[in-house]
Specification:
The protein has 2 helices and 5 strands; from the N terminus they run αβββββα. By secondary structure, the protein is an alpha+beta fold.
Length: 115
């Protein structure tokens, strides 16, 4: 089962890269591409739950943000019994946001509508 989980996670990574290639081939310009860890605090300790990659780009003079959040662990338990548990397969979420022209706030856009 581990091979199936690894393949599924790799497929999500390929899908994210395919979306970026499609953006670039459509004339989009990547303005920011950053990856950073996701942390949570349990008492005095800090644990890394996964990573988040945020790519900002412009397409037809509209600003967009594409975010891939990969969580390898999740917080379980209550009170003093809190602990982290490994997720198999990792939880991967891809979100596309568009910057509003009126108030500079990000609004979620459906990926399927965009592409």
């Amino acid at each position: 089962m581990r091979e199936i989980d690894d393949t599924r996670g790799f497929g999500r990574e390929e899908a994210f890269e395919a979306i970026l290639e499609r953006i670039k081939s459509s004339g989009g310009e990547v303005t920011r591409d950053e990856t950073y860890p996701l942390y949570t605090d349990i008492g005095m300790d800090q644990f890394e739950l996964g990573v988040e990659r945020a790519v900002e780009f412009t397409l037809n003079r509209i600003e967009f943000q594409l975010i891939r959040r990969t969580e390898n662990y999740h917080l379980a338990g209550m009170g003093k019994q809190k602990h982290v548990e490994e997720l198999t397969p990792p939880r991967i979420k891809i979100v596309l946001k568009r910057k509003s022209s009126q108030n500079n706030e990000w609004q979620v856009v459906d990926l399927e509508d965009m592409f």
